[in-house]
Amino acid sequence: MSDRLPPIQNMVELRKGVDADLDAWLLHCITQNNLEYLINPHSNASPEQLRFMVCLDEDQVYIPCSDVLFQDLMAPELTQGLLRGYLVCWKVLVRLAHQHIKDPYIRRTIFQFARRQFQGTLHHHILIPSRLMKRLQNIFSSLTGIDDPYLERKQQYNQRAQAFLDSPVLESLLYACPASSLSCARIKDLRWELDLLELQRLFMLSSWVDLWHEDTPNILQAREILAQPCTEFDRLTDIFGPDHPEPLKILYLPNASGGILFDIRIIRCLLRMGHKVILALKSGFYFQTPTIWDVDRDPVLAKALAGAHCIADSSLGKNALLKTLREHQFVIIGDGSQERCNLYRSSVTFARAWKEADVIIAKGEPHVRRLIQTGHQFTRTICCFHRDERGFHLHVKEKPAHVHKHTEAGLRAKAGQIIQSMREAKVQGRRPMFYSAIIGSIPGQTKTAIRVVTAFVTHLRANLRGAFIINPAEHFEPGLDGDDLMFMWEQVQRSGLLEVWRFQTVADVEKSFELLDEPMPAAWIGKDATFSTGCTKEMRIALDMQREHPEMQILGPPPEHFFRRQEYGVGLYHDAGIVAR
């Protein structure tokens, strides 16, 4: 590897266009780890989807690993740390093969094939160990046809954990009154202190693997663990405490079977406090980690999750997700992956769940490495907890101050303000008109589109003094994706107050550039509202509203010219079909 690579101490410093050698190395790293969206769009998240979860500028690059591991990847020679990670992957494969493959021929085939992969990895040392594990795992699964070799082990862990949860011992450990008196300036403070104490005990028990790895866990040791002071839990007061104005949406990322039963008890505690929880399970086999399949195949887990609503759709839209969260307090989704936390491989549903959440609770050291021990910042506050040889640890990484979450309530409030303006306009004798136009449907032309629409609406307002014209471009805000905008505008459009709904025509676009005194770019030639994904959705709404209010006028291209656009690409303002071409 070239010694000309600039020193990078923190992955947040990774930016394209600064150093040609670094750009080449980053492209090599991303492609070798099979994380490049343009090469594999069906498996990898788009840059826009990644920005739902990771705070990234246009020129920033996200690498799904810790800062320490990234330094190992950039090193000119294979480091001991990276070698240890690779050897762990190899040993796991060998153990899998010996435990689950009886045919020596198939076992030898797997070893020889995997050895060639492994030797190439050692030579180039550019693979993230978890990506190597995924490749070796795929080799095992494809050659054996075994979809989950850990199924029985996971069920056994869950049975042991449930047996402990059902035992009288748990009652004494979990619900014993604290030895010291709690402060009680307000009843809600006392209630929170009791909730916090229960959460603290559950967090600690949830991270102690002996409870499900052994048939008879050491109860005395469990008491000692719970008796240990842990000031780190004070951070939870800032997130969930009594002064928080409203219930939160929480995305919960578990770590291992057995512990998942304690995680569910934590979730039940959070539900009792009024919060909503989305539990993200793996979408396929990943060793001891619980999967979405386990909900159907493990009766112990199924019973523990009774009452939770399971979402099977991996590409759920915003409206559908919000509707589900309104109807269900406890929701289960698949994260879209079969590996250690890798946001590149997350599903659209997972990315939207992250975006709708207020806080992420992630358990286990792998999550700590990926989410805490990295310079990357994330769009939501992250609370990670795990146990190691030094004891229990809880980490909180706050979302950056500049990150603003567009909540459902906030979007409804924005819509409500516009609706109120429409009512006031009608009282004044003005006719509310909505102007549907291209905003983001031409990739890379959003800023131009806003100028085009604003110029034309200004022209209309000057000539149609009796109309109250709503210009969607005036309410466009960074951070809103297509589904956010549609959610907000649908409240306005279905208010029943619109009297005229005008859709942008080719003539409107031509007039707009004339008003701007600019030549029309080639990308805009022949474009009108029928090219827009949002306008297509809005035409459907307009036709619905016209059936309810026959006096409402629809102006512009005829409805039959629409409907070639279907759904937004996630995080985009244009059709998903455009992204793939």
From TrEMBL:
Domain Damage-control phosphatase ARMT1-like metal-binding residue range list: 117-377
Pfam family, one: ARMT1-like_dom
InterPro entries per UniProt: ARMT-1-like_metal-bd_sf, ARMT1-like_metal-bd
Domain of life: Bacteria
Name of the protein in its database record: Damage-control phosphatase ARMT1-like metal-binding domain-containing protein
